[in-house]
Structure formats: structure tokens, C-alpha cells
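Support request, please re-run this one:
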Amino acid sequence: MTRPSIPPQALQQRAGVLVMPSGWPSCELFKLFPEEARWQFYEWVKQQRAFLEQHGWIFEESYDQYVRRVCEELQL
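Re-run finished. Output below.
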């Protein structure tokens, strides 16, 4: 069985991509804060992810998985 070839342009585009591992950022420490502060932190981490994605970063976990994990960590 032969593997399909990948165009050289696709390889060049992927060469400089930064892939963030699952579990980043960890929000565990913030669960001790008051609920209002946790909601503010939740909004901030969503903005940070959007910013990094706009600048070419790729995350291992999907956006839905990310939001679910952050909510669980922040106990929201």
C-alpha cells in the first residue's frame, strides 16, 4: 500500500507550528478563589486560547474539550 504524497507547501506551512499539549493552562489553583474571580479567569483563558490560535498555535485538545476541562478545574 502506498502513502499519499503531501505537497511540499503543506509541509512548509506545518514546519513552524507550535502544538500545545492537553492540560494547558492548568486552572487547578484558581478553584480556591471566589466564584466571581474564577469566572473572570475563565474568560481570560478563553481569550488567551483565541489569541494563540489566531497566531498559528495548535492545541491537542479541541475547543470543547478545553472549555469542559477548564470549567471542571475551576468548579464552574
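The beta strands are 19-20, 58-59. The mean pLDDT is 77.
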